[in-house]
């Protein structure tokens, strides 16, 4: 019964990523964002902090004396389950969807910079080489012989493209620890025999659940401290345009929450979401969260907009302290 209509949460999170990406693309066109920052803008607008912030906000709301979500114990239990599901699904989307987008933009920016820097040297070198050596510089040795001659089947081209993609993709970074943990969590939660062995007061291996719970409770304040220390880097100067920062703040704090209200209400109207007000509250909150801190990690991995990312995160989280309070209050009034 708990999973009735809960399938909509992964869809809802995917919609936040897609809608945020569309709004980011519009923002890039309006502000004429430099190419090396376009992937960062898309990442900040599409990926929200679906993990530790919900784990902090939801119990605090449930423990309020005038909470509209009923008994605090039941509310906290279900709320933590919803927040954990949000964190797991969000981690998968962030380290697949956003990671690939930011890598593509970072690679394209690096290639354009290299092409500009070596274009003159290549032309100068070709002018000094004999004609026979010039042709050898532009051969297609890395392609299969049949492809270089123009004789290639669809299967050969598909296999070669897949091989090239696999060679250019660092699977160790795509399958980050958070993604692997989310996958294991789904397996344990959805496969009944495994769940009965690990989860529950009478489970034979319930010590594993207790240990994971203790580590998880300690990780929440640790993540908050790490997040705060990362925001301090945003006090440094950066060359990012103020209009880009303002655009990201408006997208995440105004447009996405408004669109989210329409989506969740429409889903409830068509029976895609049940009448559980706490569940609807978390679905709405997923549109109002500031950018995920994993975006900063990706910016460091790709060395694209590291200082700019710190500035964006600083302003987004400072203003999120006010916007999240306002939106949470409005959502509770709307659902009450």
TrEMBL record:
Signal peptide start and end residues: none
UniProt keywords, alphabetically: Auxin signaling pathway, Endoplasmic reticulum, Membrane, Transmembrane, Transmembrane helix, Transport
Principal subcellular localisation of the protein: endoplasmic reticulum
Endoplasmic reticulum is among the record's keywords: yes
Residues annotated as transmembrane: 6-28, 40-61, 81-100, 174-194, 214-232, 244-266, 278-302, 314-334
Superkingdom classification of source: Eukaryota
InterPro entries, alphabetized: Mem_transp_PIN-like (IPR004776), PILS1/3/4/5/7 (IPR045033)
GO biological process terms on file: auxin-activated signaling pathway; endoplasmic reticulum to cytosol auxin transport
Compartments, record wording: Endoplasmic reticulum membrane
Topology with respect to the bilayer: Multi-pass membrane protein
GO cellular component: endoplasmic reticulum membrane
Family per similarity comment: Belongs to the auxin efflux carrier (TC 2.A.69.2) family.
Function summary: Involved in cellular auxin homeostasis by regulating auxin metabolism. Regulates intracellular auxin accumulation at the endoplasmic reticulum and thus auxin availability for nuclear auxin signaling.
Name of the protein in its database record: Protein PIN-LIKES 3-like isoform X4
Organism expressing this protein natively: Populus alba x Populus x berolinensis
Source species taxonomy: Eukaryota, Viridiplantae, Streptophyta, Embryophyta, Tracheophyta
């Amino acid at each position: 019964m708990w999973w009735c209509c809960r399938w909509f949460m992964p869809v809802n999170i995917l919609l936040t990523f897609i809608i945020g990406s569309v709004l980011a693309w519009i923002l890039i066109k309006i502000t004429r964002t430099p190419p090396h920052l376009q992937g960062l803008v898309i990442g900040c607008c599409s990926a929200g902090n679906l993990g530790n912030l919900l784990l902090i906000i939801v119990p605090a709301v449930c423990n309020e004396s005038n909470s509209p979500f009923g008994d605090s114990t039941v509310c906290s239990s279900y709320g933590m389950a919803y927040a954990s599901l949000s964190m797991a699904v969000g981690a998968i989307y962030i380290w697949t969807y956003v990671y690939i987008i930011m890598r593509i933009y970072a690679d394209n920016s690096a290639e354009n910079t290299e092409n500009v820097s070596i274009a003159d040297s290549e032309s100068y070198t070709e002018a000094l080489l004999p004609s026979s050596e010039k042709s050898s510089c532009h051969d297609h040795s890395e392609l299969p012989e049949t492809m270089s001659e123009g004789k290639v089947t669809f299967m050969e081209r598909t296999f070669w493209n897949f091989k090239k993609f696999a060679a250019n993709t660092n699977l160790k970074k795509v399958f980050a620890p958070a993604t692997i943990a989310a996958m294991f969590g789904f397996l344990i939660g959805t496969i009944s025999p495994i769940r009965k062995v690990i989860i529950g007061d009478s489970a034979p291996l319930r010590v594993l659940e207790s240990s994971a719970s203790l580590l998880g409770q300690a990780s929440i304040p640790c993540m908050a401290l790490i997040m705060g220390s990362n925001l301090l880097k945003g006090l440094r100067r950066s060359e990012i345009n103020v209009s880009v920062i303002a655009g990201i703040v408006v997208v995440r704090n105004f447009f996405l929450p408004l669109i989210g209200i329409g989506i969740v209400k429409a889903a409830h109207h068509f029976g895609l979401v049940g009448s559980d007000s706490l569940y609807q509250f978390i679905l709405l909150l997923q549109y109002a969260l500031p950018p995920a801190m994993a975006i900063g990690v990706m910016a460091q991995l790709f060395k694209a907009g590291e200082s700019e990312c710190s500035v964006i995160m600083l302003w987004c989280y400072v203003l999120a302290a006010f916007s999240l309070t306002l939106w949470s209050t409005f959502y509770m009034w709307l659902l009450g």
